[in-house]
Amino acid sequence: MADIRVDSWLELQEVLYDLSNNKDNHNRYRSNCVYRGVADSSWELETSLYRMGGAYESVEGPLLRSFKKYAESGSIPGDSLWSRLSVAQHHGLPTRVLDWTVSPKVAVHFATAEEEHYDKDAAIWRINVPESRALLPDNLRQVLHKEYAFLFSVEMLEANIPTLEDLDTLRPDNPFILFFEPPSLDARIINQWAILSIMPGATTVLSKFLENHTTLYDRIIIPKELKWEVRDKLDQDNVTERMLFPGLDGLSSWLKRYYGSGPN
């Protein structure tokens, strides 16, 4: 893995939008990557299910089953596992899914939104999606090729991997990462340009997997000394909780920081 440490707002923009490693981008200025911002660069890519601790892998099924059973009627679109996982992740249920975004600046928002971590360097994890697709089982690669798709949809996954057990039996000794788009459930998912990732096996930690696939990714390190400048310039660009979490909760979070005392 290559860590790229930036020292200014301008350098951060240059690194985030560097397309020099792109392949097959059809002569357009589009990134092949997805991004995940974390407030502390020491954090691993652990799922919320993993972070439950204990025998977390044994409660994955009961969690999803109970989520479906007790959810308000009509709150989960359809009966697909993949729609249920998307809704569950969206509403804070521990799952084996991780959140990503196609937008570099949305990732930077999540790396700089938590003031309690302003004493730590932040990081943007960046994964090359076409490179990761090369590790998929042949039948899944063929699905993407047939659909001429960059990412899986929940419908494509439902047709080919209807259960988590089906996912876990795909090459158990040779894991892979799979990216898919959640349904456009609300403005929050749309505005964040959300992407989800999943791997076979509830115990798999993506950052450990990436240690053996260092060409798939890099990390952009935002020094703690730069966080307030980055944060204020994101606010000026309207990349805020007000836009990414539409509603009174997001508005309140943005106003609390905007009118706060700032750096001491």
Short description:
The protein has helices spanning 9-16, 60-70, 81-90, 104-112, 129-133, 138-147, 154-160, 164-168, 187-192, 206-210, 227-236, 241-244, 248-258, and strands at residues 2-5, 33-38, 98-101, 122-128, 152-153, 178-181, 194-198, 217-222. It is an alpha/beta fold.
Describe the structure.
The protein is an alpha/beta fold. It has one domain. The chain has 13 helices and 8 strands. The chain has helices at 9-16, 60-70, 81-90, 104-112, 129-133, 138-147, 154-160, 164-168, 187-192, 206-210, 227-236, 241-244, 248-258, and strands spanning 2-5, 33-38, 98-101, 122-128, 152-153, 178-181, 194-198, 217-222. The strands form 2 sheets. It has a 4-stranded mixed β-sheet with strand order 1-8-4-2. Strands 3-7-6-5 form a 4-stranded mixed β-sheet. Helix 4 (104-112) crosses helix 11 (227-236). The model has no long low-confidence stretch (mean pLDDT 92).
